[in-house]
Amino acid sequence: MLVSMKSLLDHADENTYAVMAMNSINIEMVRAGIEAATEERSPIIIQMGPGQIAKHAHLDAIVPVVRALAEKAPVPIALNLDHGARLEDEVRAIQEGFTNVMIDASSLPFEENVQRTRTVVTLAHPKGVSVEAELGHVGQAAAGDGRTDDMYTDVAQACEFVERTGCDALAVAIGTAHGTYPKGYVPKLDFNRLAELKRALQMPLVLHGGSGSGEENLKAAVAGGINKINVCTDAFQAAKEGMLALLSENPAADFLALQMAAEASIKAFVKKYLHIIGSNDRYTYAAFDSGSKE
Questions:
Q1: What's the pTM value of the predicted model, to 2 decimals?
Q2: What are 232-257's pLDDT values in tens digits?
Q3: Which residues have C-beta within 8 Å of that of residue 94, sequence separation ≥ 6?
Q4: Domain coordinates of the chain in residue numbers?
Q5: Quick check: is 82 catalytic?
Q6: List 82, 104, 145, 190, catalytic entry
């Protein structure tokens, strides 16, 4: 069933686990994620960003796919707009039936970030759509972003930001970055800052740049209060590896076989990830069918 992202993250916050938010650009990725979540009795968030929507995940095609698969799933699924920067992207996502939108104005001055986020909250909440915002800056791994604390989220500023905007979840910068890290590099996360943020805000916190962060970092982040982890690069890589493995075994494999291999590889990756972040076995079929949560 398609549900509000806020409902998923509030439950994760109350029970100290995180929900995987996987960027998904076609039916194979959506199906792999939802089937993995169903088999592991876990919630999951399917998301896509404006760039991915423009290039491949066209909303008139992908949203009906997500809705159809989510409605058949016995676990809760949320649909999130990832890194929306333009108001028109937020409005369109709300109109198309997304259950959460992220407004990313984190690269702008604080006051402008506050005003843009508050505008989106004002538009989304009356429609039953929750809002994720970002404070601090989660940059690009290839550029070395996330290695200095001048980009990190300030605790006092975060408290003011949440109070003034009314956002439902906050993406915080504690040392991760988007994309692929240089070979052999594992980010060093500021868990003390994370603990201070969680203690001060008492709300669902989001970790962007989950790909390549390392299993121990992910587990520690969840224990420290992260309730949503964004995953894109690692999911795309899983799909690529599945196809390459099949081609290595059978160079004559056709397009259908390659798509099936990619989907199977993503599904296996997601199932493992759900265990790392502790969201497996959070929802039983009976509990969800009766409308209650474990």
A1: 0.90
A2: 999 999 999 999 999 999 999 999 99
A3: 101, 123, 124, 127, 129
A4: 5-289
A5: yes
A6: 82
